[in-house]
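User: Can you predict the 3D structure of Protocadherin Fat 1? Sequence below.
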Amino acid sequence: MKMSRNKVLLFVSMIWLLISGTADGSCPVSSTAKNFGGKLLEEGGCLTVVDISEPQKLYGKITLDHLHRFCMESFKGGRLLSFTDSQKLQILAGVNFKKDPTSTILLHPGVRVFKTNITTKQDVFVEKCMQMETLNCMGYPYEYISTRNEKTSGMLYQCAEKKCCSNSDCDDTASLLTFESELLENVSDSSADAFCRCIEFNPTYLKWNLPAEHTYHCDHMKCDVFVCENDEYTDCKETRVKNCSYSLEAQSCKEFTYQVISEKELPYGNDCENRNYGESCVCPCGGTWTQWSIVSGTCGKVVSIRYRPRLDMVATNKSCDDAKASCCTETKDHFVVCDHYTYSKAEYEKFKAECEQHNGVVNASDAELVCVCFDDRQFGTFCENTFDACSEQKWCQNGGSCRNYKGSYRCDCMDNYSGENCTDIIKTCLSNAECMNGGICALLHSGKACKCTEGFAGANCELKIGKCKAHVCMNGASCLQVNNNTYKCDCSYNYEGTFCEEELSITEILIRLVKGNLTLHLVVIIIMLILLVICCISSFQVVFLFYLFYFQSIISAHRTLQKLMYDKLFGRAKRLRQKALDEHAAKQKSQQEELNSQSLSSSSVG
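Assistant: Sure. Here are the predicted structure tokens for Protocadherin Fat 1:
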């Protein structure tokens, strides 16, 4: 099962977090919610500087216990930071106290010291002697909060140096006090049994001073700040992913979305960066599909459809019942065998399975089933046979192309060639007068024939291929359907042409009437004979001359008609032939340009 691209990105991000140990986090000092000082430690964790008034507001007291309680309740993993010697001040390097950097800060060291009468001997390093010396010392118990958030006790010592160092000469220097912790410096004898003190801390030089006046009873603390040590807070982390989806913020579908790696940890984790969802996009499908419904047909090929709402519709609780045009659609075709069919459902399924086994497609009607082969080399009832006749030998001559056809072959001949193997040369006639609508006369073995242009048929290309339609014939002519595939227009006496689009002149109309009216000729001849019998001999010459003039007129009119019709037909045929030749030349030029373009494209790809 393959994971989606989004899941892979999220998985990689989580692995990175595990390898790196912990996510980059934030400290309270970077939050705008409170005005805490502090810094992020390099080894992880935070130092947070708190004003002494904060616990006083909550608890009314500021004892050591209350300071620690504030750290523990206010910050994740919080505990009071304690100092017993000045060396630990190095941890405060770079801390932002959010105060004037030149000012001195009264810092609570997080330690409570007790006075006792405990005396003991301790091995102490004496600088004057440059060695460890056993001295008489007074012990001062103290307590602080350990790293395990437990109150822990310890002992600080105030020792008197000897006037003489071991194994060395004595001098007159008075005895000095030395301390295990500087916190014992300047502690007056009048100090309470338990005391706390504030250290004058200089953040610039990381040094402290311990004057006696900053020693107080722990219930009356007068320090400025104290320091909490706490864990860092997880920031919001997201990955921008290119995936068109619905954005609640934008109230539309956008091209980018965001995968959340980690949520912002309250209250001091940082928010995610401002999101950029990119451009608008077409909302993808969401929700569930509706049931299939039949769109068309009850027998044979039936089309069914179902709908699925888009993500913006899901977000706004819209359904496809009211807005099908906005939904995603899916259609499927299936075949329904009805009772009047000549085959049963089982027979259809069996035929279909056998046909599709050979990559055929079933063409079904109510009377028969036909397996259509899409590979020209295949043939047979179920396309089960394969024969490549064109590969046997070169059947088609004179540039003809071979194509397989039902176990045999067919030749598609070049212009001016015909026949089964394109061996017959098509010779053009001297005149195209007999071929209409741009047809070209060709000389075949069987005689003359018109090679019609596309859309025309008939011995003289006089028929238009197609069915009679309204207004196809012009100028009041009627359309006559010659057969299932061709028709012609029956023109009135004063129009001609395939669609009766050409109007005849008066002379052409009279000649057509005389030429085509045999009854008129017979009537005139009979009248002349009657006049010849009835009239006298003297009138015979007049009648004879009239009769001779009439026949001369008929002959002259017939010749004029022949000339007009020949000139008209030949001229029109010549124009149509030239038009057909021009179109053919243009078509060949276009095909050649397309072949050249394909050749250039193939060269570029290579």
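The two ends are 37 Å apart (CA to CA). Confidence is low (pLDDT under 50) at residues 1-23, 598-606.
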